[in-house]
Amino acid sequence: MTNIKNSWAEPYKIKMVELLKMTTPAQRKKAMKDAGYNTFLLKSEDVYIDLLTDSGTSAMSDRQWAGMMLGDEAYAGSRNFYNLERVVKDVYGYKYLIPTHQGRGAENILSKILIKKGDIIPGNMYFTTTRLHQELAGGKFEDIIIDEAHDSESEFPFKGNVDMSKLERLIKKYGAEKIPYVSVATSVNMAGGQPISMKNLRELRALTKKHGIRVIHDMTRVAENAYFIQQREKGYEKKTIREIVKEINSYTDGATMSAKKDALVNIGGFLAVNDWDVFEEARNMVVVYEGLHTYGGLAGRDMEAMAIGIEESVSDEHIRARVGQVIYLGQKMIEYNVPIVKPIGGHGIFVDAKKFLPHISQDAFPAQTLAAEIYLDSGVRTMERGVVSAGRKANGDNYYPKLELVRFTIPRRVYTQAHMDVIAESAARVYERRDKIKGMKMIYEPKYLRFFQAKFEKLT
Ligand code: PLI
Q1: Which three-class secondary structure string do you get for 163-195?
Q2: How far is the CA of 103 from the centre of ligand 1 (A)?
Q3: Is residue 385 annotated as a catalytic residue, yes or no?
Q4: Which fold has domain 62-313?
Q5: Is 261 among the catalytic positions?
Q6: What CA–CA distance (Å, rounded) separates 347 from 226?
Q7: Are 396 and 458 a contacting pair, CB within 8 Å?
Q8: Which of 46, 163, 218, 262 is flagged as catalytic?
Q9: Under a CB-based contact definition with an 8 Å cutoff, are residues 246 and 92 in contact?
Q10: Per-residue tens of pLDDT for the chain, all 460 residues
Q11: CA-CA distance, 125 to 415, in Å (whole number)?
């Protein structure tokens, strides 16, 4: 009896299915070449299992779809806005809400309000759109995540933690008045979906309070972070995900949210703050960039689906199955000796392309190459999270991130365990023939967020 596992299973059953197109190797070869070896430029109908992102790709529940029918499409004062406002206050604990079309809409508004030219924004690793909005507003991002986050093999349980000594050094060097806020993410995306601990958040709150610096939370995947706190941090074993999420948020002054992830909707986001002055300015600015402050670029039905999705996202059963599926895939990859970032994170498996393809230099884009090879093998679409995503500094030099990763991102409530097996087998097959794989050169590079639209050619 003692050997019987206590498995998780999905806390839902399937009511409708979407048929997938299977492709031949020849079709994939043509599609990949036409897409300039950039998985972002593939047509979705040429993809079998789509692990490009967990953003906006979740399956909504029957309740969310029912909520869509209750959309109040008034230009001003939609009933759905007030529902969303109530849920954000109740579940997340922030006082004031400004809806936006998605996360970067909130980042734009917040950066414009809080950042002045020459300001420094410390953060626990960059995120592409977040850093770009900080830079466009005249600020400079400084990485203050712990060193372990840059090491794919470190098994430290909270690799999303802020290194307080790095933050203290920045405060000393520039002065607190040059730091409008610390940008702290839960489930740090670029580190592999790694969590920050509650203890670290408490320490961050204490230090920033002493210096009068705000903490702004990128809460895109806060519920997944809460799961790791529940599983790994002493004192939180018996707390619910909902309680942990609320406590995390209580150590911060405001948040930007891409509701397309945790909150289980296909579009939507928001800015939420506790400070009336920031709210007042944001409420005014949102009219310029998104729409009136009671819809912010969303339809009433989108806000209703989001309000319901937020409630579903903090259920313990949901999160256990969600992260459980990611861990299942990661363990399969480990069994096949595929080098992945450890510990396994919350929203996907991050394969270490430097270790997978050690013969390809970072200038020949090992992660971009590997993402293309996985697609060619099986029609599974992944994405680069390495030197292409990192982009260029203001002086034009490339950023060379230590982590050169391919992200196998798992959409929520979409794929089955059998899909996970097929994905791991594809990674293992490509790993077996890794020595024969050559790198690529970039033949087209757009100015902003180049990873979305860049094109490549295979080196011969
Ligand atoms: O894609 P948006 O504009 O709704 O959200 C931007 C955004 C902000 N923060 C974090 C941590 C993200 O992961 C994020 C978007 N992520 C995408 C699209 C992804 O594929 O990971």
Answers
A1: CHHHHHHHHHHHCHHHCCEEEEECCEHHHCCEC
A2: 6
A3: yes
A4: Aspartate Aminotransferase; domain 2 (3.40.640)
A5: yes
A6: 13
A7: no
A8: 218
A9: yes
A10: 578 988 889 999 999 999 999 999 999 999 999 999 999 999 999 999 999 999 999 999 999 999 999 999 999 999 999 999 999 999 999 999 999 999 999 999 999 999 999 999 999 999 999 999 999 999 999 999 999 999 989 999 999 999 999 999 999 999 999 999 999 999 999 999 999 999 999 999 999 999 999 999 999 999 999 999 999 999 999 999 999 999 999 999 999 999 999 999 999 999 999 999 999 999 999 999 999 999 999 999 999 999 999 999 999 999 999 999 999 999 999 999 999 999 999 999 999 999 999 999 999 999 999 999 999 999 999 999 999 999 998 899 999 999 999 999 999 999 999 999 999 999 999 999 999 999 999 999 999 999 999 999 999 8
A11: 29
Dist CA 51 CA 219 (whole Å): 21
CA of residue 22 to ligand 1 center, whole Å: 28
Architecture of domain 25-54+316-458: Alpha-Beta Complex (3.90)
Residue 427 vs residues 187, 332, 371, 430: alpha-carbon distances, Å: 24, 10, 10, 5
Domain boundaries, the chain: 25-54+316-458, 62-313
